Amino acid sequence: MNKDWKSCKLPIGTVAVGNEFYLRDNIVEEIWDELQKGNSVLLAAPRRVGKTSIMRYMEENPIDNYKIFFQNIQSITSADKFYERVYMMLLNCLSKTKKVKKWFENFVKSKSIIEIRKDGIVFEDKPTDFLKETNALLVEINGNAEMENIVLLLDELPEVLFNINEKDAVSILKTLRHWRQQPEMSKKVKFVLAGSIGIHYVVEKIETRNSDLNDLAKVVFEPLSDNEAHSYIDWATKGATITYSSKLKKHLLNKIQYFVPYFINLLIDEIDRQAKKANNPKITTQSIDAAFDTVVKNNDYFNDWKKRLQNYMPPMDFDFVNEILKHTAHKEYISVQEIYDKAVKYEKTADYMEFINELEKDGYIVEFENKYLFISPFLSAFWKRNNPIYNT
Ligand SMILES: Nc1ncnc2c1ncn2[C@@H]1O[C@H](COP(=O)(O)OP(=O)(O)O)[C@@H](O)[C@H]1O
Ligand SMILES: [Mg+2]
After folding, report:
1. Best residue for ligand 1 mutational test, from 10, 156, 262 (most atoms within 8 Å of Cβ)
2. How many angstroms is it from 195 CA to the middle of ligand 2?
3. Strand partners for 122
4. What separation in Å is there between the alpha carbon of 124 and the centre of ligand 2?
5. For 27-163, where are the E strands, in sequence order?
6. pTM of the model
7. Are strands 113-117 and 120-123 parallel, antiparallel or unpaired?
8. Distance CA 295, CA 292 (A)
9. Ligand nearest to the CA of 221
10. In this predicted model, what pLDDT tens digit does every residue of 16-66 receive, in sequence order?
């Protein structure tokens, strides 16, 4: 083993923070722009595209006149708990504002609050109705001329809506909308909402319409452009033992095709691992190909994409969608006619294109000249390995 070997330190699956975070400033700017325009924001992006990493970065690097707080709310089990959490997030932001210090001290006293922690509030006498408390607090915040702006970053909201009972889920969606739309509550407090399952699945399940989300500014995470992807590799390999010529970079990106950091990280990391093992810092196009083949075989990296469909779709829907993806993996693409033929077989002719649109929105497939193909060769290869037999 080579002690002096310098690996590329890249996160694989965990959030990218600190010097493992590659700043995608156009996305960060777009989110701040929307917030400054007075909008709340929905991060409309599939799993593993970098939503949580961006939210964490924003929390660490707020802009002037904003207090911002991030929470992964996945574990919340009821609407009440949700309102309690939002109340706690608001208090955490308020405890950081200097401009309204006196007001806040009085507020804390009046509510018999003993301690404000990042994971909860300690009360002498805990309120019983956090929705009421939060509503009142929002009105106070917005009515205070000295107050700074507040942004609450809520990660994994769709999971919560999916897992709790329908009545509570509807209540949360309606309340969030109310908080965004009532002028006396919404001027100074904005939300950024994100989650790793498409929120549209959930909203459709509980309400049959998406109108409760229509006012949110949607920020789409485009993949890196060709230029950005080249800079990304430079950033990822800076100071590392392995170096990439422009020919190698081109070859690597050619394998990846769809330039989201996660897919690039997987490949760079594997190349590094294999080169280190062989104690050979000189990589070639063949070593890139070999690493690609290894990554593809690691189901752990891609299982999520399948599990997510399985967990959030009724079995009949999953079977239909899986059939489409199987076909796409084995035949490289699927035509609209072929999709329709399968819809006939699965009795989905009434709404089959909705499934296709969701697969597209959720980052599985893209349309190209009236055909659909996997966005990433990794996903395609995974689906094929996962379903090795395909009979039309
Ligand atoms: N800005 C970034 N810099 C470096 N790696 C990133 C970045 N964004 C995403 N990644 C990669 O993607 C993975 C998933 O990121 P994450 O923020 O958890 O995505 P999401 O919340 O959309 O599921 C990370 O483990 C990392 O490999
Ligand atoms: Mg996330």
Report:
1. 262
2. 6
3. 115
4. 35
5. 41-44, 66-72, 113-117, 120-123, 149-155
6. 0.93
7. antiparallel
8. 5
9. 1
10. 999 999 999 999 999 999 999 999 999 978 888 999 999 999 999 999 999
